[in-house]
Amino acid sequence: MRTWTSVVAAVCAVIFSPVRAEPAPACGIPHEIHDGWTMTVPEKQGLNAALLCAMDEGIRGGKLANVDDIVVIRHGVLVYESYYDYPHQLNYDATTRHNGYSMTKSVVSLLVGIAMDRGLIKDLDAPIASYLPDYKGFREADKDRVTLRHLLTMSAGLGTDRALGVRFEYNSVETELVGTILKKVTGKGVDVLAQENIFAPLGIEDVAWYKDPVSGLPTSSRGLSLRPRDWAKIGQLVLNRGAWDGRQIVSASWIDQSTAEHIKTDKAAFSYGYQWWIGHSSDTSGSLQWAAALGFNSQKTIVIPALDMVVVFNAGRESRNMVAPELDLLDRYILPATSRD
């Protein structure tokens, strides 16, 4: 039989014992693979882990976007990564490369900036016929006035009769010509240029780049495969305005130019820079502008300067206009989870 004293003691223990907070959600915690990233839990960089975990649960439960992986960088720190398994398709983890498809174009844009920094390309508005005099597309009316700026902004109108520099028309041939010009002025393919000038300095070691079976040359408009965390390094380089570990890889002025709006596109939500897409998202503080490398099957590397953030999405299934539904995850979960510090 319990004594009155023991009953009182038990009641007091309940009343006065400290309340224990529920443990923080543990989804999306990065794992060390020794690739150079500093890692912390989301809260240490001003993100609400509970909201990120709600996103994670929705994806795994089939209620949200069908993505292969999500990587979030805040203040230069890897704070969240998650990989998703689906039946009857290749599944990914932190050590698996993911094809970036047309995200390759944005890497090639960085190479143009590096070539300009070194004086190998001096003027974006010089006719590119001077680089490629034998290209048959320049034999058409007025196409001898096509410039590198036209190619970078997808406004050259090759194969059409529209005026130069007026209308955006997505055309991978124009990016392939950019790569051809880079090889002409440097003597190297885009794969070698990127390895020497971007991948090596950023510590990106696991790379595959598709080569055209006829020419044997790496494609400039598509075909670059990197680990998701390495795509995030490309985004962080842009967020750092071209700097990495105290070294200026590409000039800040080129980053500013290439990620600024130069032309409206046929997608109402986007404008275009130099092989970078420019978009906006809304949060409680208003509109946030971001720049993104986008690719088929909804590959995305999104750079958000106002939040000091990079977000990578990879997906193995095509989504509408390379836009939905991953941007819904950004707008509904990742941005609301982020403080404005």
UniProtKB/TrEMBL annotation:
Keyword tags: Signal
PANTHER family named in the record: BETA-LACTAMASE-RELATED, BETA-LACTAMASE-RELATED DOMAIN-CONTAINING PROTEIN
Start and end residues of each Beta-lactamase-related domain: 70-328
A Pfam family the protein falls into: Beta-lactamase
Recorded superkingdom: Bacteria
First and last residue of the signal peptide: 1-21
Protein name, UniProt field: Beta-lactamase family protein
UniProt source species: Bradyrhizobium zhengyangense
UniProt xrefs under InterPro entries: Beta-lactam-related, Beta-lactam/transpept-like, Diverse_Enzym_Activities
